[in-house]
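Revision sheet: structure tokens.
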Amino acid sequence: MDYHKEAAEIIAVLADSCSEAQLIGSMSTSTYDTAWVSIVSKPDGAELRWLFPESFQIVLDSQSLDGGWNGPGSETDTILNSLAAPLVLCRHHTAPTHTNGNNPPDLLSRISKDQVGFEIISPSIINSLRSFGICLYEPPVLLSLQAQKLRGFYWNLLYGSRQLALLHSLEAFDSLIDFDRLSHHMRNGSFLGSPSSTAAYLMNSSVWSIEAEQYLQPVFQKGTGQSSGKFPSAFPSANFELSWVGTMIYRKRRLLIETIYRLFPHFSVLD
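Predicted:
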């Protein structure tokens, strides 16, 4: 096996993809982001239709026997999944008139069966669930941590020209901010490459954003979910792909140097 040739081919493919402005991304799919995207509905004449009904089915299929939604990562992931998913069930239950709705007959029992951890949870999602009659205990320490996090932060900063990290999680500010004042932060249809944040913008802006929809459609088709309805937590991720491949090759430093010399003969590398 010619490792030099394989390494050169991988780097060349990634470099070509980036230079041709193709959307690339291989991050694992996320139940949390899939959940948020599954509640985006689009005007269809005088009616509404779900933009990604496949994603709702993924949320249903992902519910575990104990009623929660486990995650492949940390306990925090599982907790956030198990908060966002029941919110999805509630919104689909209260919107039966969508033209392409397909609620299962046991939807209500699925909602009542869900067991949500509350050690480290999002107050925004808790507040949204409360509007559907699902009341969760908010530990004082959680509210204290939230207050500390937002201390000295002014909402108007989100409307300014500076792009803040909070733009990656706009779903946390549902009903708290004016989404119509955030459109200038959109880049290639997304907010910092976040499907969940872009979905939140689509649901809360007063005018349907074709640009945001056109961002989500390729993520649906070309992301690791491959049109199944599953969405990753970030897309595209060209910088991540290049960094990851470079890091893996760097572990074989000599291979990296020799590969670079083969691709770029005039490039100087200090040995």
